[in-house]
Amino acid sequence: MAESTPDAGQEAAAAPQEATVPVPGAAGGGPISHAIFRLARLHRMFAGQLLRRIGLHPGQELVMMHLWELGPQRQIDLVRLLDSDAATMTRTVRRLEQAGFVRRRASPTDKRASLIEPTAASHALRREVEEVWSRLEDFSTAGFSDDERAGALATLERLEHNLVQAAARPVGPAQQ
Question: What's the predicted TM-score (pTM) here?
Fold first, then answer.
C-alpha cells in the first residue's frame, strides 16, 4: 500500500475512490458490510506493514498495550480483554514470548495459572507502538476535519454497538 500525500488525501475527500475489491452481486444487499470488510482488510494490512518494522504482527501490539497499562495478566484475562479465543491468544503469547517481549511466571494466588508480563525489551517498544498507532490514525483519517473524525468515530461505535447487540440475540432459521 502506498503512503498517501497531503494532496492525495484532499483528493480522496473530494471524490470517493473506487472500491479496491469489486463488490460481487451477492453482496449487493450489504454495501456497508462489504465496505467494512474492505476497510478492515486494508487497515490490518497497513498496520501489519507498520508493525513489522518494529518486530510485531497485528494483534500483538494490542496484547502489549494491555500488559503495559494493566501489568501482568492471566492468559484467560487477556482473552476476555481482547474478545479473543483461547487458541489465538495461546499462539500470540507464545510468539511474543519467543520474541522476548513477554514472559510467564507462576501466579501467586492460583497455582494452576501463570501470569503473562511484559519484559524490559517490550517496554522499549512502547513508544514505537504508540507512534505506529498515531501514523495509522493519520493515514486513515487524512483530510478529515475534527468534526469528520468525531462523526466517523461515532458511526463506527454505533456499528459496533449494533453488532454486539445482534450477537447477543439468538439467531433463528428465519433470521439467518
Answer: 0.79
